[in-house]
Specification:
CATH superfamily of the largest domain: Hypothetical protein, domain 2
Number of domains: 2
Number of helices: 13
Strand content: under 5%
Radius of gyration: 19 Å
Oligomer: single chain
Shape: globular
Distance between the termini: 42 Å
């Protein structure tokens, strides 16, 4: 019975994903980490922009990243030798700039000392080991680690606030599930080939329609597959 239920859930999850694919246009340029990875596949640069995107929009994070790159430079050695105030001034657009500047400086110092300014070796470890090593770094929690690892090609799914909300409203994971349960729950429902697109599509859907305060259920292409009890009513359609 449990196996049959899981298989049914997987089929429904795949239907949801395919429908979102048909209705949403996702571009790497709209997401901070994939955008920078496309430009320069340097894991330290991707990690920096992912940290900048914490608690702010991808647009603001990319703006702060560009300014930091222009005025300071983005590599571990350079940032480790740059004053915290100078870093904070450059990344002001990302919000929490003082806290992030402190974290980025400390991060760069550790990467230089521990990994000779190169994170590539860390990302080539087995997934669980790489996640553990990354989370030992300042400003790097599970989500940030998973974003970087996913961009690098490791089989994991990152869970931001949109992915968390959409997954729970769709009934793909428990309402009270915490980060790791959401992540592993989604990984159990989708094949590894879909791991990269799942968070991007769920994020795009969460930004456009499945918003936190007032989801636009009346415009949602997957409304009929969604059990969310607090659906919003929209204009009556002919």
């Amino acid at each position: 019975m449990a196996t049959a239920t899981l298989e049914h859930k997987r089929i429904r999850a795949q239907q949801i994903l395919e429908t979102l694919r048909q209705h949403l246009l996702i571009r790497d340029e709209d997401f901070a980490a994939p955008c920078i990875a496309k430009e320069s596949f340097d894991p330290f640069r991707v990690l920096v922009v992912t940290i900048l995107s914490q608690n702010c929009t991808d647009i603001a994070a990319l703006r702060a990243y560009r300014t930091l790159d222009q005025k300071v430079g983005i590599d571990a050695l350079t940032l480790s030798r740059t004053g915290q105030r100078e870093i904070a001034k450059a990344i002001h657009a990302a919000g929490l700039h003082k806290q992030k500047a402190k974290g980025l400086k400390r991060l760069s110092e550790i990467v230089v000392k521990r990994y000779s300014a190169d994170l590539s070796g860390v990302l080539n470890h087995p997934l669980d080991e790489a996640r553990t090593l990354l989370q030992e770094l300042p400003q790097v929690g599970p989500k940030t680690a998973d974003v970087l690892l996913s961009v690098w090609g490791q089989p994991t799914i990152s869970v931001d606030t949109h992915v968390n909300r959409v997954s729970k409203r769709l009934g793909l994971v428990r309402q009270r599930a915490r980060y790791e349960e959401v992540r592993t729950g989604l990984m159990s429902l989708y094949s590894s080939e879909d791991y990269r697109s799942v968070p991007l599509l769920f994020m795009a859907h969460g930004r456009k329609l499945c918003k936190a305060p007032k989801p636009r259920c009346f415009d949602c292409p997957i409304e009929k597959m969604c059990p969310y009890p607090k659906k919003t009513l929209g204009p009556r359609r002919c």
